Amino acid sequence: MRFTKSIPNMFTLGNLFCGFLSIGYAANGSYKNAAILILIGMMLDSMDGRLARMLKADSALGKELDSLADIVTFGVAPSFLVYYTYFYQFGLIGLMIAGLFPLFGAYRLARFNISSSKGSQNYFVGVPITAAGGILALITLFGELIPNIVTTVLFTSLSFLMVSKVRIPSLKDVPLPKYGTIITIFLGASLYIVFKGTYGSFPYLIYIATPLYIAFLAYRFVKGKSRRNLN
Length: 231
Description:
It is a multi-pass membrane protein. The chain has 231 residues and is mainly alpha-helical. 74% of the residues lie in helices and 3% in strands.
């Protein structure tokens, strides 16, 4: 029983480790791998909360751990990725601009943590850091097709949108993990790997994570459909 309750936290720690590995890959110039690891982190992030509810293993520790993992994987890692691929040419100014993203992301997470119990379950206030970090990972993954000015505008916009008062639909009633994660994973990782033919260029972890994630999606879909039929 104790091991079962620790399973969601293991997924959260896996998310955090993906963020750490992404920073390492980016520092070594392996930018595609770094982006893919952020996407894998999104898979794990979309599963830990639902697993905690399924296993009745919700805890204050898990919620705090999730926020700490998110700021690394979807805040620090994407900002390093954008810095190493584009902002590095502006020197210290570029580094300072890249640092805005995790700062705003940390503020957004802190605000969410103290207000989530009072807010509506139908929307998020501000763009979630998970979605923002995933978008930056996608920009890097398809970097050769995206002009640098677009990267700059998106990076700046996402930084401010995270701390804005804009309401983003949560779609929590949809019987699948976060819709933004699904879009990011399948339009990003799958399309790039399949159409670019780069099967051997990415961490082997993706070949384990992707089938597991697809199985999880299928399970959630079938379970949600059966519930609707009963009602």
